[in-house]
Specification:
By secondary structure, this protein is mainly alpha-helical. It has one domain (about 35-365). The chain is built from twelve helices and four strands. The protein has helices spanning about 15-20, 35-75, 90-125, 135-150, 185-190, 190-205, 210-240, 245-250, 255-300, 305-315, 335-340, 355-365; strands at about 130, 155-160, 165-170, 180. A four-stranded mixed beta sheet has the order 1-2-4-3, sandwiched between helices. A hairpin with a 7-residue loop joins β3 (about 165-170) and β4. The chain is elongated.
Length: about 375
């Protein structure tokens, strides 16, 4: 592996970096000495499989909980039950089973869709268009040289017609990788800064972050959508089903205490599950931004390029137009309006999609 350049040494061009593909067994700068790219990629694949399984289980249980809540509200709104049996365990378990089966089906369909069509959907949502080498030879050269240095196929290059400054990578694996950059960022960066940003995005592709990020965005979105849909169904069931029916039956004194406990737990889980899904996704996104920064330095051997680019991104106040909460974690910095216009790129909370810019820059400076 090439040694990092000193401060007095002119920065290598991307073509210099591309001349030597990095040793996959070499230690990764900024991480413990026993962490190599091969180990990092293998760990990311294992973590991806585990988190996807976890999110699918969460969706299944969440939909089951919604099924319990709907059955419970339906029972409370039923004025035709003259026996006044109240809540019973068996109908609730049937509601859980139906909801869980529905959740499994939705999770499987969403995972398959995200795997084969998620990347194209993200590119459409952001308004990105594919460009060829004659459209921007310098950008293509940088992408090509850094992908050679990373030892991966050259990703497709997309441009987002937007004065905002940002970039992201997507695709399910390095063979289907995509790098997208806004016209605003493309115009504002020097060649070394551009190489730093592209190296960051290629590191995401190389580390298989793009696959996990895309799947997590889809599955977390399903939980949030199901939470909203389930809440509305339960609300209208109680509102239009005659919620006063239970009081007319003397409060449903025949309710099974275990059934009441099950309903309470289902409500708590239904409230916490979407929050937990978002927190897991945001924590994962923050950690992998640090790893991609370190990977960019490995490819360019010049931390100042990415440092300069991050400094310009932090000082920019033009938000990206076609972006939502679901796609925000994919970008190199938070693209949302409230973060960009208020300059909150240094915010550090459990709800932050990206780590603080100042901390990222400090870590990069430590790699010189």
């Amino acid at each position: 592996m090439a040694e990092p350049v000193s401060k007095k040494t002119p920065p290598p061009s991307p073509s210099d970096s591309a001349g030597a593909v990095h040793d996959e067994q070499a230690p990764l700068k900024g991480l413990p000495a026993n962490v190599t790219y091969t180990g990092l990629i293998a760990r990311n694949k294992r973590n991806s499989a585990f988190l996807i399984l976890l999110m699918n289980v969460l969706i299944t249980c969440f939909c089951g909980a919604i099924g319990i809540i709907i059955v419970a509200f339906g029972e409370s709104a039923d004025t035709t039950n003259s026996q006044q049996q109240g809540l019973q365990v068996a109908p609730l378990m049937m509601g859980f089973l139906v909801g869980a089966v529905f959740g499994v089906v939705i999770a499987v369909i969403a995972t398959i869709w995200s795997w084969f069509g998620g990347s194209a959907a993200i590119l459409r949502m952001t308004g990105a268009r594919e460009i060829s080498k004659p459209d921007d030879p310098r950008l293509f050269n940088v992408v090509e040289e850094l992908s050679i240095a990373a030892g991966i196929p050259m990703p497709k290059v997309y441009l987002i017609e937007d004065p905002a400054m940002n970039a992201f990578a997507t695709g399910r694996d390095p063979e289907h990788g995509v790098v997208a950059i806004t016209t605003g960022l493309r115009k504002m960066l020097t060649r070394d800064e551009l190489a730093g940003v592209i190296a960051h995005e290629i590191s995401h592709i190389r580390h298989y972050d793009i696959r996990l990020g895309m799947l997590m965005a889809t599955l977390a979105g399903i939980i949030i959508f199901a939470a909203d849909a389930g809440t509305r169904v339960a609300f209208y069931s109680a509102m239009f089903g005659g919620g006063g029916g239970r009081s007319s039956r003397g409060g449903g004194g025949g309710s099974n205490p275990l059934a009441i406990v099950i309903v309470v737990l289902a409500v708590i889980f239904a409230i916490l599950a979407p929050l937990c899904a978002m927190l897991v996704r945001f924590a994962m996104s923050r950690q992998r931004e640090f790893l991609a920064d370190a990977g960019a330095v490995e490819l360019t051997r010049y931390p100042d390029g990415l440092i300069g680019a991050l400094g310009k991104l932090g000082g920019h106040r033009q938000p990206l137009q076609h972006v939502g909460q679901s796609t925000a974690p994919l970008f190199i910095v938070n693209p949302l309006k409230r973060a960009v216009r208020s300059g909150r790129h240094d915010a550090s909370t459990v709800f932050s999609t990206h780590p603080p810019l100042t901390e990222r820059i400090q870590r990069l400076r430590a790699l010189k």
